[in-house]
TrEMBL record:
Entry GO MF terms: ATP binding; hydrolase activity; RNA helicase activity; translation initiation factor activity
Key word Nucleotide-binding present: yes
Organism expressing this protein natively: Parasteatoda tepidariorum (Common house spider)
InterPro entries, per database record: DEAD_box_RNA_helicase, Helicase_C-like, P-loop_NTPase
Top-rank taxon: Eukaryota
A Pfam family of this chain: Helicase_C
UniProt KW keywords: ATP-binding, Helicase, Hydrolase, Initiation factor, Nucleotide-binding, Protein biosynthesis
Keyword Acetylation among record annotations: no
Name of the protein this chain belongs to: Putative eukaryotic initiation factor
């Protein structure tokens, strides 16, 4: 799987990693896109802190990432 799209965030952080872990396996490029509401921004920041990573806003040239 080269692209994972989350139309809603999972209810817990472990499920988020399980979902996006489907992309980019076996040395291949993988991209995860999250559609979030204003209310979900805090949950996404919590995921970033827990896994010590940064989830960036989707750039305009998203087609170049896939």
């Amino acid at each position: 799987v080269s692209l994972v799209i989350n139309y809603d965030l999972p209810t817990n952080r472990e499920n988020y990693i399980h979902r996006i872990g489907r992309g980019g396996r076996f040395g291949r490029k993988g991209v995860a896109i999250n559609f979030i509401t204003e209310d979900e921004k805090r949950s996404l920041r919590d995921i970033e802190q827990l896994y010590n990573t940064q989830i960036e806003e989707m750039p305009i040239n998203v087609a170049d990432l896939i």
